[in-house]
Amino acid sequence: MPDGFSAKEYLEPEDITMLERILEKLLPASADAAEREWLASLLIAAFQNGATDEAALVATMERKQTVSRVGRRKELDARRSLPGYSGAPPS
Rounded CA gap, 51 and 63, in Å? Predict the structure, then answer.
């Protein structure tokens, strides 16, 4: 495995402290509870899948956030191209 990677099945107190620190670093100030929970679940999954080093976790999460932003942007662009698009959220 690359440096900073080794699978872990459980979280130690110091692991939780590190994950909280990374979460605070990566979350925008405007993040709501759903976004916070979503990012936390991705962070824990990455940790349990072997990214146990802080630098590796930050890099992994930044890639995931970029992919997510691109996907949301494409979805919004697709909606804007639909006839009758008003900008209102879908119901």
Answer: 13
The answer to whether residues 42 and 61 touch, using CB atoms and an 8 Å cutoff, is yes
Which has the higher per-residue pLDDT, 60 or 67?
60
- The residue type of 70 is V
- Cα gap 20→22, rounded to integer Å: 5
Distance CA 56, CA 46 (A): 9
**Is-above-0.90 flag for pTM?**
no
Nearest to 65, CA basis, from 5, 9, 2, 22: 22
Give the C-alpha distances (Å, rounded to integers) separating 37 from 2, 14, 15, 20, 32: 28, 20, 17, 12, 9
